[in-house]
Write a structure and sequence with these properties.
This protein has two domains: 155 residues, Alpha/beta knot; 58 residues, no CATH class. It is α/β, with parallel strands linked by helices and 231 residues long. The protein is elongated. α1 links the parallel β1 and β2. The chain is 42% helix and 12% strand. Strands 3-2-1-5-4-6 form a six-stranded parallel beta sheet. α1 packs parallel to α6.
Amino acid sequence: MELRLVLVEPEGRVNFGYILRLCRNFGIGDICVVKPKFDLRDPEVLNFAAGGANLVESVKVLESLEECLRGVDYSICTTAVAGASDDYLRQAVSPWAIPLVVPRGSKVALVFGRESVGLTRAELASCDLISTLVTPSDYNVLNLSHAVAVYLYELMRVGTTEVVVGERCGSDYIRILMRYVENLGRVLNLTQDEVAAVKHSIAKAMLTKPECRALYKLLKGALALIRKTPQ
């Protein structure tokens, strides 16, 4: 798995310094930051980054999450609020399950939100998967740098065991399926959350190539049939 770490509007210099240090620990060189609330080269950042301070020179600073997600196969948004039965958007996977769901060799963006309020619903909807940390207590809101540490550890200790027998569906094919879901959603007047929920379901499904082909035929046929039917 090739990993890109994405931070949306980070607010804390100390946290960012620790995250740079973690990136050095785990060999993460692809870091993208959306509208940081401080100077990334602030002395406090560099002090807490320790051996990872030099990574600040390679950090990409962009204006939107959309820009940071370009060029990846899968995007994973993190949230502390997940699992509510009546919320389509916040059906999540645990960090340890991500390597099982995402095909081996994929380029993955791992997205973290603001220390104060996390990611917006629109930002969550823009990701392929939603993930949350499950803790033994009823308080699973971790400090940002602590959460990043857990995720990097879980994602970078990937083994070689395959859960699905058969050739997995490639990311390009998955993108085609996602576009058909979006088009069907518009035709059927589904909400943004409902469309995102279907897309997240496809991303979690660990589809093989034959399964992708079958789903493609179903979605394409359904869209064509709906468009032909008089309104």
